[in-house]
Amino acid sequence: MAEEVIRPALWRRGLRNVALMSGGSVVVLMVLVAVLAPLLAPHDPYSQDLTRRLLPPFWIEGTDPTHLLGTDHLGRDYLSRLIYGARISLGVGFGVVLVSGLIGISLGLVAGYFGGLADMGISFIITTRLSLPIVLVALAAVAFAGASLATLITVLGLLLWDRFAVVSRAAAQSLRSRDFIKGLRAIGAGQVRILFLELLPNMRAALIVVMTLEVANVILLEAALSFLGLGVRAPTPSWGLMISEGRDNILFDPWLTALPGAALCVLVLAVNLLGDGLRDITGGRLK
Amino acid sequence: MLVYLLRRLAVALCVCVAVSALSFGLMFVVGDPAVAIAGAGGSARDAEAIRHAYGFDRPYVVQYLGWVGHVLRGDFGQSIYFNMPVTEIVRARLPVTAILGGVSFTLALVVAVPLGIVAARKPGGLTDRLALLLAVTGQAVPSFWLGLMAIVVFGVWHGLVPTSGADTWQGYILPVVVLAYSAMPAMMRITRSGMIEVLGTDYIRSAEAKGLPTWQVIVGHALRNAILPLVSLAALQLGVLLSGSIVIESVFALNGLGRLAWESLLRADLPVVQAVILILSLVYVVLTTAADLVNAWLDPRIRGVR
Amino acid sequence: MTLLDLQDLHVAIPTERGLLRAVRGVDLRLAAGETLCLVGESGCGKSLTAMTLMGLGPKTAQTRSGRFTLLGQEMAGRGRAAWKTLRGRGLSMIFQDPMTSLNPTLTVGRQLTEGVIHTEGLTRRAAEARAIALLERVGIARAGQRLGQYPHQFSGGQRQRLMIAMALMSEPKFLIADEPTTALDVTIQAQILSLLAGLQRDLGLGLLLITHDLGVVAAIADRVAVMYAGRIVEEGSASRIFRRPAHPYTAGLMAAIPVPGRTPRGTPLPAIPGRVPGLIEPIAGCAFCERCARGETLCAARPPSDVALPDGRVECHFPAVEIVQ
User: Fold this and answer.
1) B118-144 tens-digit pLDDT
2) Which chain B residue has the Cα nearest residue A120?
3) CATH homologous superfamily for the domain B92-268+277-298
4) Which class does domain C2-80+172-261+270-284 fall in?
5) What is the pTM of this model?
6) Is residue A130 part of a domain?
7) Does residue B63 belong to the interface with chain C, where contact is any CB pair within 8 Å?
8) Which end of chain C is more exposed for a tag (fewer CB within 10 A), N or C?
């Protein structure tokens, strides 16, 4: 009931929050670009034309008007590859967060709600997970499971649940002692019911914030892994991979490296701003 | 304090055991190590011989205990690629990563803490806005890309610094700055939010009421309390820095642990990968334990003074 | 000697809904060795007035005043920084909540002594000797050992004793106590108040005690100032104000105190009807007008002017007649 009272105010605060609105609109734009990539891209991002290699983008002399942002070392249209790259970044970002969120929230809920031995065990798992060097372990796992989009999402999902677990554990702990949960337990409501129908909706705000910030985190990590050659495999147009491919020509065509990196920056910045804005208006704090 | 110390060390020990088991298990999860050692040209019989020679046919627990026994004596086994002791290879590469991580961590801290304090004194002010801008961009820029761009701008176009390698100290400038820039935002933000919270407390008002000068109120009272979450985060960030050095070392062609691990992965040189994962994990465990002890020293309530 | 001579203090705080005129022309005087109680309900501006006297009001507050002499220094128009030469050097304060007003991570000894080590240049040993003497005076046993302990090792009542000792370390002439007992149990409240009253007498302190508890006022005040909606509506000797209040608001406050033996059991205490006016919109007439039984058209239209009383003053168009004459 309290929610109905808060909601209009929340919307109004949201509309007034500069970070939220600017970040949010860029994210929406990027999602649209990713979804509508086949309609927006002027060329097939995979079709090579070795006779038209390394054409420069429009602000450099010698450009070709059909390739607005030039072509890469295999003559593929760079704008099209950048547009399709948004699909990879966002797809991996959301995919991983779906997996890691599921794992992390379940663990955190159980630990925070039941406490005792369950909490000790799960806290230990969290501590152990935190002590692993994440980039290296992800690299190792991908290296041996074979680089592919599905592997990448699975591996990162299995590794990056820690923040979800920490936040939902803390939230469940503080909610457990609240009167309405005590009341539900007193009238004999089932544990599963309390966990998923009462606890989970009440920590929605905090979890949405974590989810947003984690998407940004995952996007950066995917780019780093692809850059190291152990993430998304060529010829898939991942921004991280494109940076790595552009590196070979960095002396004469630095724009090949600059463009996908700039796209990454804009996307991650927007997602982070969105997350910060959401945190500001919901008051969902993170430690 | 003693009870706290012992309990904390017990947890750290358990984590060490778990982490070592994980890095040991990695070898078996990812495939048959004997086949990997035999290489692409090896026959099934070669693999069988290797399996027996290396003791891979013994029970896992026995192998693990044997491995741990060696590790405790500083023996991480033999590198398949270099055909020399892993410990020697690691020892040669460790200083580069330690310098890179240590210096950029110090730089990040030296920038983050004063900036966080100044920003917190006037939230919404000019310094605060600039600090937040710096933090927001620092969190969004992929460090490996920033590194490449820095090489182009400062190394190639202006020729101010070497573009790769760490033969001279100048070679460290760009990687250190880039790495520090990625580690700074989180520490700045936590200092800032901690300071804002503490500066609004009643005990800060009490300190001011006593007639203490501003710097003494900020350093002696506010920072001491605001720094508690920073200490935990800083340990975590140092771990992240060491882990992130993998990417940076490959961008700047620095021969550190991270690059070693990456190359060893590509060469399927598992004993080296295992060793690096274990070392980085142990460093992390030591750091977080140290952070908890520092916090206990700073806050009597944590160390259970009654 | 006059410790405080304050005229026409205005403090306004910018809020999201507009400028909150929380203090709207307050006059206060306090002589050395005198106890003045500032009473009023929550939100009337009494704590803000106290904080402004300490130079610790909100940073965003807009402050202006007429004459503002504090311990012989003219403070009118000066910024927060000007108070640095007063705090811990003659001016001291005890805060509301002893549970949050002590730094949890520093020893009590450090917190007691650091002020005077800085302001008077005392050695640690000399400062600790003074702290031990004061702790014993405020009733904390084994003071020498307890200096090494942390705040959470003390009970609520003990912590307020610590706060009092801390405020007295600098041997102030002027002590402000902002509701020093509200956070404490009733039984402990009485002990702390009698301790405070005793110290005031023994040390000849000028004490400005801020409270909404009239029982406290009756016990220790020399003079009383009644604050309502950012103004002092009546001021006078404690003995007179309790027997014959001149302002209808003061009268309402007095009527709401139960007197054991005289107030019959079971009768509801008379409450003052209505609510305190919002302080964002300017108030045309008397702020108490809408809640006042004597209120007339004149009250809503024109702010009341001061009426001098033999022992003070009242701000009302229709004060209780017998006192004025």
Assistant:
1) 999 888 889 999 999 999 999 899 999
2) B11
3) MetI-like (1.10.3720.10)
4) alpha beta
5) 0.84
6) yes
7) no
8) C
